[in-house]
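Note to self: keep these together.
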Amino acid sequence: MKPPLMLAIGVEVHDNWVGFHSTNRGHQFFGKLVKETKNGFIWHRVEDTFEEGHKDFGLIEFKALTIEEYNKKVRPYLVGPVPESNSTEELYEFYQREFGRRGYHY
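Structure:
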């Protein structure tokens, strides 16, 4: 089974948390940076939950997608019209313009 794929827009990394927006809402994951990679980073998500106490959610890979990866892994699952992008830069500009100006309210 493949891990879930989520678009992370406006990613903000801090000592013990990472924040970002998806196309739906803001997200904040506590934990720590495991390592930086060529195209992103690996985050170890660990949260203090009300029901279960200290919970380990495992590793999350944050990776900058190219237009080719986006067209293969994301575009087929989108609902509604999404403009065609001719480059990775155009793709990033579209998502930043449409979803990146929400401020940092996670």
